[in-house]
Write a structure and sequence with these properties.
The structure is a homodimer. Chain A has 16 helices and 16 strands. With about 475 residues, chain A is an alpha/beta fold. In chain A, α8 packs across α12. The interface between A and B is large, with 57 and 57 residues.
Chain lengths: ~475, ~475
């Protein structure tokens, strides 16, 4: 039997079992059919059935009990309730330096902390060996080349590869539309500089990416926050009301696997949103950094650009969440007149992006198993997200709310209203556990009873113990 | 005899001979003493004397005539007259998109052009082999490390090395004062963002670095141009008058081996300038990108920071002119409160500089022969600059003015007033020769009868032929 076919068979079985666990056919703690039973009944090999169970176990849905068989996990994801969004004041404001910001930034990168505070993924998930091979194989002429300046718009082969990735998601994108940047944040920063006029406000989501708030603060940008649902993304009616009331120059949104929410906007929301913004001539900058990190069972999500008819959607992304955060390579896909302005700002600000970083990534995309790497990454991150969600459900008070996202690596956890996330953060740090308090994820500082948990690292015993400690800290507020 | 001593002896001899050629004791075209004569008279080995002559030949000061001996070059540098600066209107202005800008940018990087238009240096001058060795030697754990995020302020070891380089030039600088950036341009851009308040003007030199004008244009910065002498740098009296008349938020100056002038401010000018700016509380951003590229016979020039008593001097530089332009690593040395603001802007704009680029450079500075590389670079660039200057003098009309700088790799050439540098540029490009027309080096577009010639590449027959063609183009205006 070919490997493909084998994979297809056990995946189909594990998918069917998962569906019955999710819909409650098999309840929490219930014993599942034995491997032998399914082997006979379904005419599948013992190995195939066994592999399907291993798959469910890795996903945290079942557990093996020695000499007894497989059981549905006593707590299961289908009992999770999604968080709801905090009331968000939609008034224009400057982003202030929060008291927590420096502490949070430090804790997120402190190697002595349990790394639940960062959105980074473990370097075990990065294709280190492929990159090592590329470095070893660099010829003299190649080294000479990577030491010289590159074009302001970036390495042509890399731009071509990035354009190719949009096939079927955004029609007609070519290498000419791609400008390489120092990561996704620079891509967004250049877009903002290219678009916003003095006095104009930027619409952002609430909550939003913590790093963007630092950008807005550094650049003195006036923002208006739109409430954003933890499952379906930005509230379009609320956004419409903001556009009616304020002089909005642009929107910066994360439609796919939102940071920190994990939300993905349904296609009809995306379509409606783009129609609204196209109609008013307002550019939208979309951060698609997690776009390729969709989990098994879903497909590459569409972009806002997919529905754009007026050339007003600018798509920003990078390789930071898929290949190598330390190679500072991101990009923006934009048509004229934005592309030319962005390119001028890029060249003016820092000439060009690292020739070496770009070359190494172009080589990886050409020679190395990019698709296979992504498949493994998606599968491992999904397992880590599910296991972390289960561990939280097991250890946190029962009124805790969270939703397992369909991609990315983050969990947005809503705690009882009596719980102060900032205090949870401080007590966690005392226990050498880094988390992100929800309050730092918005300009207005709402979401005080929320925290963000990063799932980019393997769920080791230490992580499970850390989550138990977090659960006790949270429960302490209810005493 | 030890190599040091040998080097000392022939260098002393070549220095003495050079002094006598410069002061006219040996006139143009005159025969010099034979090797045997100097060997007997000075009690030096034949080899030592020969090496001194080879040195002078490499510097373009003497030529060997077969079977006859060494002669002073028929044209010599001591007959060069330094350019004078064009009248500069010192009124605040925005930088406009010049019609030439895109064409000039393209020509400077076009591999089909003779590369006299760029400030880049030939990759033959870069330590390609040392870098190749570093890439080959990267261990698994190192590869893993360079793929992860680095700190916003940069690699600690690299920052320590950069702080050490200021020993004797700026007292008390530590790694804590150094923020790593994506090249020198980003360092300056972050300083401007950290310092300038709305409505404030930036004082710049006229002429100035072409790339900075693109930055000011992209950022919408209002500039006031101070006339700058091609030999001694910015005119301090004119600068004082500007400060009296306008709301100046900062100055951006290149005190050492100015681009495009090659000017170096004398120490007493630097001292006077810093006293003036310190007294008025105005920050000064100094671009020291050529600071380490001083030629033999001079020493590491001082900084404006050397004389700064108020913490108002911010020093920007990079490895682009000494090690590898394509590794986008620069830095700014700044005290509080600027450092903290710059760091926030850096983190906000693009998180951090390439971990890979920083690591590779830190490894180079630790393991590779950095000082030896710099010595060779300085020596080769000096030879290229002198040879180019001589070739220009030979082929251009006699009223051409230029000064050989004491460092860097650029020649600023003043042509007869009847000559339009933009037309020279266009005709040069038709002949596949890239140069920089002087008019693009200022916001006011003065310096129309000036051109900049880059000397970063070996002076091959093709380069000499190119300069002859340029000479004919320039002479064509006088017909």
């Amino acid at each position: 039997m070919r490997e493909d076919e084998y994979r297809f068979r056990y995946k189909r079985l594990s998918g069917e079992l998962e569906a019955r666990i999710s819909d409650g056919t098999y309840g929490p703690g219930e014993k599942l059919p034995s491997i032998r039973q399914l082997h006979r009944k379904l005419n599948l090999s013992m190995t195939t059935v066994h592999q399907a169970y291993l798959d469910l176990e890795a996903a945290g849905l079942v557990e093996a009990r020695p000499k007894s068989g497989y059981y549905v996990m006593p707590v299961s994801l289908n009992r999770l309730r999604a968080p709801v969004h905090a009331p968000t004041p939609s008034t224009p404001r400057r982003v202030e330096a929060g008291a927590m910001v420096n502490s949070v930034l430090k804790a997120a990168v402190d190697p002595k902390m349990l790394p639940l505070g960062s959105s980074a993924i473990s370097s075990d998930l990065l294709p280190v060996r492929s990159f090592a091979k590329i470095f070893k194989g660099l010829s003299g002429p190649e080294v000479r080349k990577v030491m010289a300046y590159s074009l302001a718009e970036g390495n042509p082969e890399l731009r071509r590869r990035i354009a190719l990735q949009t096939l079927g998601v955004a029609d007609g994108v070519t290498a000419d539309d791609v400008v390489i940047t120092n990561g996704c944040t620079e891509a967004a920063a250049l877009c903002l500089q290219a678009i916003l006029k003095p006095g104009q406000a930027l619409v952002i989501e609430s909550p939003t990416h913590f790093g963007y708030l630092q950008l807005f603060r550094a650049y003195g940008i006036t923002v208006v926050e739109a409430p954003t649902d933890p499952v379906t993304g930005v509230d379009i009616d609320a956004l419409t009301a903001i556009l009616d009331r304020h002089d909005v120059g642009a929107c910066l949104l994360m439609p796919n696997f939102h940071n920190p929410l994990g939300a993905i906007m349904p296609d009809d929301h995306k379509r409606r949103l783009v129609r609204l913004l196209n109609g008013r001539g307002i550019p939208v900058i979309e951060d698609d950094i997690y776009g390729e990190v969709y989990f098994e069972g879903t497909a590459r999500p569409s972009l806002l650009k997919t529905y754009d008819r007026e050339g007003l959607a600018l798509t920003c992304s990078s390789f930071s969440k898929t290949l190598a955060p330390g190679l500072r390579v991101g990009w923006v896909i934009a048509g004229e007149p934005f592309r030319e302005r962005i390119l001028r700002l890029k060249a003016g600000s820092n000439v060009c992006t690292s020739t070496l970083d770009q070359y190494v990534l172009a080589r990886f995309l050409t020679d190395a198993p990019w698709e296979r790497h992504l498949r493994r990454l998606r599968s491992v991150l999904r397992q880590q997200v599910i296991r972390t969600a289960l561990a939280i459900q097991k250890s946190f008070p029962p009124d805790t709310r969270l939703a397992v996202p369909a991609g990315g690596s983050l969990l947005w956890v809503q705690l009882n209203e009596a719980v102060d996330g900032n205090v949870v953060y401080r007590r966690a740090v005392e226990n050498r556990i880094a988390i992100l308090p929800g309050a730092v994820c918005s300009a207005s500082g709402v979401h005080r009873n929320y925290i963000r948990i990063g799932c980019g690292y393997p769920v080791t015993d230490r992580v499970e113990e850390g989550i138990r400690i977090l659960g006790r800290i949270v429960a302490g507020f209810m005493d």
